[in-house]
Structure formats: structure tokens, C-alpha cells
Amino acid sequence: MSGRLWSLLIATLATPTGLPAQSGQFLVRLGRDTLAIERYTRTADRLEGEQVVRSPRTVHRLYTATFGPGGAVERFELVTHNVSGGPGPLERKATATFSGDTAMMTIPRGDSTVTMRVKTGPGALPYVGQLYSLVEEVAHRARTAGTDRYTLTMLPLGTDEPWNVEVNRLGADSLTIQLGPIGPLRMRVDERGTLLGISGAGSTMQVTVERVQGLDFATLGKSFAPRSLGTLSPADTVRASVAGAAVAVRYSRPSMRGRVIFGNVVPWNKVWRTGANEATVLETSAELSVAGTKVPAGKYSLWTIPGPAGWKLVINRNTGQWGTDYDAQYDLARLDMKVEPLRQPVEQFTIAIEPIGKGGVLKLEWEKTRASVPVSTK
Predict the structure, then answer these.
(1) 139-158 burial, b for 16+ CB within 10 Å, e for fewer?
(2) Model confidence over 39-77: pLDDT tens digits?
(3) Domain range holding 321?
């Protein structure tokens, strides 16, 4: 392909030039907790901004993207400052240069840096977690395309696997976006694609994003520095002996953070990862009977289908996958669970194995709900 044709192809896939200069601020929340704040300025050939993110530690980010004549990103730079006093270097710098269908990244790794060359396809954008001016770039492109469905590629910094991104129009001021494994998120936009807000309720990333004015970055950054949120859904393992069988469950523990959980954060009648992050794993050293169903010794992933009329526990033979990668063809069993209301809410999702007599009970507790199944050995 000639250089001229290649440039024209990139131009059709990228944001058109001539966008009026604009600036904005975003407030990112997870339930009642402020997760990040961001402000940016966008001109025809440059996007620059700063951000404070509070998880797992508080960091201050400075970023710059430069755009070529056709509107495609040519270079992206991200400088991250550790302001919480936690472990790690005080400053890290990452860069990505986009040319044609390839990106060259220089990324910090430990005490050194690595250079990565990744095929992205033309017109790709970089992706940085919780950085929403880049998501707004996608919305601008989708609005300019004028179609009901728009796709492009984004490259998460530091990885060699570009994400497929899909935007679908819902109405005059509403779009949905799927960012690789993240989503679907619902976006409110204006006629140019300016991002007004995002709702992730019921999706794989439960944040809300609001376009705001008047954030005092200096004051907020200083106040957030000693108040990191830590890991949002920390990993945990529960172990027990059930009639001589060593049983363990490995899972991640999200918190309520003031949200309505079941029927909202966790939608009714849909398969739920039963925790967060990677799929929850059950391991047993001996054959078990779970709610009367034989479960041979080994490893399994655990899923649930919560519903207002009852819960199902799903035991699946596949393990090691991300918690959104459920595949029903590997199901060993779907079992009815006993559901009970709790008098006091449970803030952090909890799984417990309670030995009782010659068996035990596997219990899940969150918000004001307990769901359980009996467990015994054969």
C-alpha cells in the first residue's frame, strides 16, 4: 500500500481535525468512594491532562497525546508520581509511538525499562485505566462516523494485546461502549461526543463517571495522598477440613461502598463471578457431595445465578480464567441454594466453609443475603 493511501486510511479511522478546543474535568466514583479525579485540555493536535487515582495507592499522573494531520495519535506519554508514600519508585514514565499499524512502547519494569513493538491496526488509541479523556476520544470518533455501531482498537499501555472496542448508539444522547473485557458501559454524550457521564452499573467495571467543574486538584490531591483505597477487591482464601477432605476456596472480595448490590451491582438472573477479578476457585482433596451432587476431587470454578426467587450455584470444570469468561459447556452442575436474609448488612463479600458434624456448609454472604449449600464427603 502506498504511503498516501495509508495516510488516507488512518485519517478515516481517526478523529477528524478541526475539533474546537475544549477542556473538562471528570469525577470517578466507586459507590460512595471517590476513585479518581481528572482534568484535561484538548486542541486539534494535542491532548494533555492530569489525574489523581487512589487505588491501590494514590498516584498523580501527567499525560500528553499528540495527533498527526489526519487526527491519528502519533505519540502518548504518561508520567506517574507515587504520592502516597507506599512502596515503589517515586516516578515512572511510559511512552507509546504510533505509526501506521504499529505501536512502539517503552514501559518501566522493575528497576529498568522494556521496549515493546505491537501490531495495533491503523488509528489505534492508547488505553490507561480510569483515564476518561481517552474514552471521550472514542465517543468523538463514534459520533463523527455517524453509524449505529462503531469499532476501533485501543492498546493498554504495557501489554502486547490490543483491545477491540465497540460503541453502539442507543439514542440521541446515549451510547454503550465495550472496552475489551470492560463493560458494557453506558455513556451520556452531546452531539459532538463530549462525554457527560458514564454508568458501569451491572457491568464488569462498576464505576460512575461525572463531568464536573471546579475541582481543586491541589487540595484534593493532597487530601487523597494519605488516604489510598488499597486494592478494591482483595484476594482471599478460605480453608477447612470437611470430614477429612481438605477444601479451599480462592476468591476476591468486593465491598458494598454504599451501593445496592443484588439486582443492581449484581444483576438478577445472570451468571455472576461470585466475587471479583479472576474466577472463584474451589479445590478439594477428596470427592465431595455438594447439595447431593457428586463432585470429584480436583479444582473447579464457582459461579452463581442470583435471583429474587432463588439462587443457583454453578460448579464448572474450567479454571484459571478471568471472572467474565464463563463457559456453560464446562458445567458440572447447577445446584439450588438456600437463601436467607441477614439482620445486619455484610460490607465485604465473604465466603465461608463451616464444618458441621460429618459435613459442612458452604456459605456466601453480602449485603443482607446469605446463600448456602450443604457439603459432605461420600
Answers:
(1) bbbbbbbeeeebebbbbbbe
(2) 999 999 999 999 999 999 999 999 999 999 888 999 999
(3) 235-377
Q: Are strands 102-109 and 112-119 parallel, antiparallel or unpaired?
A: antiparallel
Residues 219 and 240 in one domain: no
Q: Is 139's pLDDT higher than 90? A: yes
The reply to whether 229 falls in a domain is no
**pLDDT over threshold 60, residue 10:** no
Q: Where are the alpha helices (DSSP H) in 25-181?
A: 132-145
Number of compact structural domains in the chain: 2
Taking the complete model, does pTM exceed 0.70, yes or no? yes
- Which of 173, 202, 223 lies at the terminal end of a domain, its last residue? 223
Q: Cα–Cα distance between 354 and 4 in angstroms, integer?
A: 68
110 pLDDT above the threshold of 90: no
User: What values do phi and psi take at 233, rounded to 5?
Assistant: -135, 80
Residues 154 and 262 in one domain: no
The cell numbers describing 57, all together, are: 495507592
- The C-alpha cell at 123 is 488509528
